[in-house]
Structure formats: structure tokens, C-alpha cells
Amino acid sequence: MSGTHRHPDLVPRTTLIGAGALLAFTLAATSIVRIANIAPAASPVLMREQARIAPVASRDLRFVDRADGSVVIGNARGGTVAVIAAGQKTGFVRGVMRGLARDRRARGINDRPPFTLTLWRDGELSLTDTATGRTIELSAFGPTNRATFAALLPAQAPGT
Fold first, then answer.
1. In 36-85, which ranges are continuous DSSP H helix?
2. At what angle are helices 143-150 and 91-107 packed, to 10 degrees?
3. Which residue pairs from 40-44 have beta carbons closer than 8 angstroms and sit at least 24 positions apart in sequence?
């Protein structure tokens, strides 16, 4: 045995070259966006505000879980809008509301503040948590899921 001991490369040279190229591309792209002053994508809420798109219909709603697993959807001013029975195929409504309720619990907010469901003149449908300001763009989830929430609006709302 000789006195020289050769260690194999821990990282192949081609991997290092690829990582360096990716880093250079990322820095270049970021620099171009900054230098050209390209605005980030605006939220639908801001775009509607800037375009002055008015609501066509809206309703303030409360969602209350019952012990039997059903969910009562009530008008914030009183009265029941709908009841989702336990086992009914309404996973989308339950999923959206579960996420919003989890956000409220994390912030220490109870279930009293209503959610505002709004149909906009451009045909979009949104659900806003009045307590947190968080808005869910329901049209983004497809026509079937959108329709489950659109059915909660007043009957006279066009385009629902």
C-alpha cells in the first residue's frame, strides 16, 4: 500500500454543474423580474376591486354542526337556508368549511361571525370569512362544486 489514499467524489461533478446552473437561472430570473418591475399576480379580490365589479347577490351565512353529523346552514339574520344531512354527498361544502373553521380556531375566533357568500357580476362566486378576511374563490373548484354553494344564494340571483 502506498501512502496516498484516494477518496471517491462524494457528489458527482455533473450534479454540481447542474446545481450551479439552476442557481444561476434562479438568480437571473429573479433579477429580471425585479429590474423590469413586473407586478406579482393579483388576487381575484383585488382584481374585482380595481375593475369595480359589483356583487349581484350575497348572503351572510352561519354553519352549525349538529351532534348527529348534519350541518345546518342558516341565514345570519335568522332562519335556515339548508340542512346537510349526515352521509349526504357534500364533501366539498364540508371541506371548505372545515378549513375555514380550523383557521378561526387557530386565531381564537368563535363561530358567531358569519361568512359572506357573494355572486359577482363577472359570474365568479366567493365565500368570505368576515372574522378573518379570508376569501375562497369557489368558481375555481369547477361547476359542480360551485353549484353547491350557489344554491345557498337567494332564489332570485341570476346566473346561479
1. 44-51
2. 70
3. 43/135, 44/124, 44/126, 44/135, 44/137
**End-to-end C-alpha distance for the chain, whole angstroms:** 83
Give the integer Cα–Cα distance in Å for 62 and 76: 6
So what's the pLDDT on residue 65?
Answer: 82
Q: What is the pLDDT of residue 150?
A: 93
Backbone angles phi, psi at 138, to 5 degrees: -75, -25
Residues belonging to the chain: 160
User: At residue 135, what are phi and psi to the nearest 5 degrees?
Assistant: -120, 135
Please state the pTM of the whole predicted model. 0.68
User: With helix as H, strand as E and coil as C, how does 99-126 read?
Assistant: HHHHHHHHHCCCCCCCEEEEEECCCCEE
Instruction: Count CB atoms within 10 A of the CB of residue 114.
Output: 19
pLDDT along the chain (160 residues), means of 10: 60 73 73 65 76 90 86 88 80 86 90 93 94 92 91 69
- Cα(120)–Cα(124) distance, integer angstroms: 5
Q: Which three cell numbers stand for residue 19?
A: 446545481
Q: Which amino acid is at 8?
A: P
